[in-house]
């Protein structure tokens, strides 16, 4: 039985790679892909979700959700890595669908339509949609099976400020609301996702360029490598979102610990910081599992295998 998932994404080239794998993984049934602003504006993120779907054209198209800005607006974007359009300024043509329901409504509808506890939300961007869905349907936290989130940092530094990871920093209030919710949550933080850097050898392992996925990734990956070299002097790319998808689909490759986490929502230096009570006698109640380690070589193998399967399945 394929695992039912909803992908909440702010594409972003690393989101796009995760989408390619998830949409064509026979072990996953992607019920919906819901856009959220982050790496790019909400409008652009919604457009990019449609672009990616049109480019890889999976046999089964999921429901799509339209992004809208967080209440306090987006403080930052990912253009320094992924260009003004979030997809490396590849300027794909897209036949935009006119009327898409808001992402939070699509999330609620899909969770309600499925049997209780059967849906995993894989949150790869700011948590705006998840928090709004919990307001729209207060039963959502107990109806959803699990929320697997890319975000935060436990003991390592942030990546958009010295203390904050990008997804949390974009909408700290929503992240705090989700952290406080009674849903079953797994957080995949930078402490783990920073451990993998894919080198240029990735291009030798992509599906043939005659395939939709092979062609699409050969378009969007070079700008990502350029962004990482320009921004960090790195000869490779991080794939935070694809690793998080692996944590959802191949949890046996990850080690998690129960933790009590919260989010700082104010402070010149610490807004968006994730804080965990790891005192000898913690006062905060555990509210999530946090990935603290992974079998990195096997995760990389699973990523490459997922991309190649996607290439074969999409044709
Ligand atoms: O900090 C990395 C996260 O922020 C990734 O999800 C990336 O796509 C951006 O959303
Ligand atoms: Ca993302």
What descriptors fit this protein?
315 residues; alpha/beta; two-stranded antiparallel ribbon; binds alpha-D-ribofuranose; binds calcium ion
Can you offer a commentary on this structure?
By secondary structure, this protein is an alpha/beta fold. The chain has one domain (3-314): Ribonucleoside hydrolase-like (Inosine-uridine Nucleoside N-ribohydrolase, Chain A, Alpha-Beta Complex), CATH 3.90.245.10. 40% of the residues lie in helices and 16% in strands. It contains 13 helices and ten strands. The chain has helices at 13-23, 42-56, 79-82, 103-113, 128-136, 140-143, 166-170, 172-180, 190-193, 202-205, 212-232, 240-249, 296-314, and strands at 3-9, 28-35, 63-65, 119-123, 146-150, 185-188, 254-259, 261-263, 274-276, 288-294. Strands 3-2-1-4-5-6-10-7 form an eight-stranded mixed beta sheet, with helices on both faces. α4 crosses α5. The model has no long low-confidence stretch (mean pLDDT 96). Calcium ion (CA) is lined by residues 10, 12, 14-15, 38-39, 124-125, 241.
Order of helices and strands: EHEHEHHEHHEHHEHHHHEEEEH
Strand order in space, largest sheet: 3-2-1-4-5-6-10-7
CATH topology name:
Inosine-uridine Nucleoside N-ribohydrolase, Chain A
Low-confidence segments, given as residue ranges, are none
Radius of gyration: 18 Å
> In DSSP terms, counting alpha (H) and pi (I) runs of 4 or more, how many helices?
13
Category from helices, strands and their pairing: alpha/beta
Shape: globular
Main pleated sheet: 8 strands, mixed
**Percent helix range:** 40-55%
Number of domains: 1
Quick one: CATH class?
Answer: Alpha Beta
The total strand number stands at 10
CATH superfamily (homologous) name: Ribonucleoside hydrolase-like
CATH architecture: Alpha-Beta Complex
Tell me, rounded to a whole number, the average pLDDT.
96
The set of bound ligands, ions and cofactors reads: alpha-D-ribofuranose, calcium ion
């Amino acid at each position: 039985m394929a695992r039912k998932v909803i992908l909440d994404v702010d594409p972003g080239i690393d989101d796009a790679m995760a989408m390619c794998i998830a949409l064509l993984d026979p072990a996953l049934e992607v019920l919906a892909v819901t856009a959220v602003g982050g790496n790019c504006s909400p409008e652009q993120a919604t457009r990019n979700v449609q672009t990616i779907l049109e480019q890889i054209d999976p046999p089964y198209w999921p429901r799509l959700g339209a992004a809208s800005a967080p209440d306090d607006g987006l403080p930052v974007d990912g253009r320094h890595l992924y260009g003004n359009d979030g997809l490396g300024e590849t300027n794909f043509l897209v036949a935009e669908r006119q009327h898409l329901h808001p992402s939070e409504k699509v999330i609620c509808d899909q969770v309600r339509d499925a049997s209780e506890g059967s849906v995993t939300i894989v949150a790869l961007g700011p948590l705006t949609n998840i928090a709004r869905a919990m307001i729209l349907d207060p039963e959502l936290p107990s109806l959803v099976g699990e929320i697997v989130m890319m975000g935060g940092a436990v003991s390592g530094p942030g990546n958009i400020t010295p203390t904050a990871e990008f997804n949390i920093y974009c909408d700290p209030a929503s992240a705090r609301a989700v952290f406080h919710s009674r849903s079953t949550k797994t957080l995949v933080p930078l402490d783990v996702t920073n451990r993998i850097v894919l080198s240029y050898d990735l291009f030798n392992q992509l599906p043939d360029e005659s395939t939709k996925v092979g062609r699409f990734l050969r378009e969007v990956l070079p700008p990502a490598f350029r962004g990482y070299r320009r921004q960090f002097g790195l000869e490779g790319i991080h794939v935070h979102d694809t690793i998080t998808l692996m944590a959802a689909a191949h949890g046996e490759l990850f080690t998690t610990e129960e933790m009590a986490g919260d989010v700082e929502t104010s402070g010149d230096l610490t807004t968006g910081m994730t804080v965990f009570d790891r005192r000898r006698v913690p006062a905060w109640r555990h509210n999530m599992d946090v990935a603290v380690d992974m079998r990195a070589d096997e995760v990389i193998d699973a990523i490459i295998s997922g991309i190649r399967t996607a290439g074969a399945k999409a044709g």
